[in-house]
Amino acid sequence: MLLWGLFATSALAQQPAAAPAPPPLLPLGTAPPAAQQPHLEFVFEERVTLSPAVVLGDTAFGHRQYIPITGGTIAGPKLKGEVIPGGWDFQLGLANGCRTLTADYFIRAEDGTVIHILNQGTMCPGQRGFFRPTFEAPKGPHDWLTGGTFVVTLELDTTGATPAQGGGPPQLGAIRLKFYQVK
Predict the structure, then answer these.
(1) CA atoms lying within 13 Å on the CB side of residue 20
(2) Domain that holds residue 85
(3) For residue 28, what are the β-bridge partners?
């Protein structure tokens, strides 16, 4: 009996401590405490230079155009480098006044690593546009981009805009994209 008691005590002592109970679930639709909510961390900004839009015109889906990406600069606390010339910003103007954008391009980090970006979103008049980028980085120091979740804001950079022919709006020479990681 004494041997059995020692065995049972020894077995209990070797078992890991029980994990603390998770906090109780809040009623459905209740905002979680601030410490449990996601937040955004600014990681870098791109200034992307552009050629004038190539207008295809009205299609069955809307007004189609694309804008060639001619280069750019990347600066920020987590990434520095350049936008590689040769990408595209495909745009579709919808009947409701909104515009879908799909930018597909490559960047080169300061260390020479080439990274693919596919940035998608919708912009509507009177609303702030947010975009969802996905990254494809090679394994190594920049693969945090591939596994992360990000959101992007867009600002028109009117520095160096050229007057349009025919009295239309000036041709935009660049945009600025601010990248934030969801934490």
Answers:
(1) 3
(2) 38-163+170-182
(3) none
Rounded to two decimals, the pTM is 0.82
Q: Is the dihedral of CA 21, 25, 26, 31 positive or negative?
A: positive
Report the 10 Å Cβ neighbour count for 46. 24
> For 45-104, how does the pLDDT look when each residue is reduced to its tens digit (9 = 90+)?
999 999 999 999 999 999 999 999 999 999 999 999 999 999 999 999 999 999 999 999
Domain tally, the chain? 1
Helix or strand or coil: residue 131? strand
Q: Taking CA 127 as the corner, what is the angle to CA 173 and CA 107, rounded to the nearest 5 degrees?
A: 40
Q: Is residue 33 part of a domain?
A: no
Angle at 113 between CA 77 and CA 175, to 5 degrees: 55
23 part of a folded domain: no
Contact predicate 83/105, CB 8 Å: yes
CATH number for 140: 2.40.160.20
Residue whose C-alpha is closest to residue 101's, from 84, 126, 120? 120
Q: Is residue 139 part of a domain?
A: yes
In three-state secondary structure terms, 9 is helix
DSSP string covering 32-53: PPGGGS--EEEEEEEEEEEPPP
